[in-house]
Specification:
It holds the Pfam family DUF1905. It comes from Asticcacaulis biprosthecium C19. By secondary structure, the protein is an alpha+beta fold. It has one domain: AF2212/PG0164-like (Elongation Factor Tu (Ef-tu), domain 3), CATH 2.40.30.100. The chain is built from two helices and seven strands. A hairpin with a 7-residue loop joins β2 and β3.
Length: 98
């Protein structure tokens, strides 16, 4: 299963000093993934191959209760390579593994 969508980068700020940057998947894509993936990993994560621009990486989607969607973590190396910053819109391509 492969998907392409536009999403906005946003920074999660928790209690820990580290913070994470994510893109939230559109609801319709998240729903389709939930319906088709029976073998989820720890914490309900889903293994994917992601691409933004020329940068490709392996990661996992993580479920988010508040939105009912999945979150895609965007590593610092990806943000640097693609010159992305908090609040930027970007095109994401995902291929669900398994």
């Amino acid at each position: 299963m492969s998907y392409s969508f536009s999403g906005k980068l946003w920074r999660w700020k928790g209690e820990a000093p580290a913070s994470w940057v994510f893109v939230t998947l559109p609801g319709d894509i998240a729903f389709e993934i939930k319906c088709q993936i029976a073998d989820r990993r720890a914490w309900g994560s889903v293994a994917v191959n992601a691409r933004i621009g020329a940068t490709t990486w392996n990661t996992s989607l993580f479920p988010e209760k508040a939105s009912g969607s999945y979150l895609l973590p965007i590593k610092a190396a990806v943000r640097k390579a693609e010159n992305l910053h908090d609040g930027d819109d970007t095109i994401v391509e995902l291929t669900v593994k398994g």
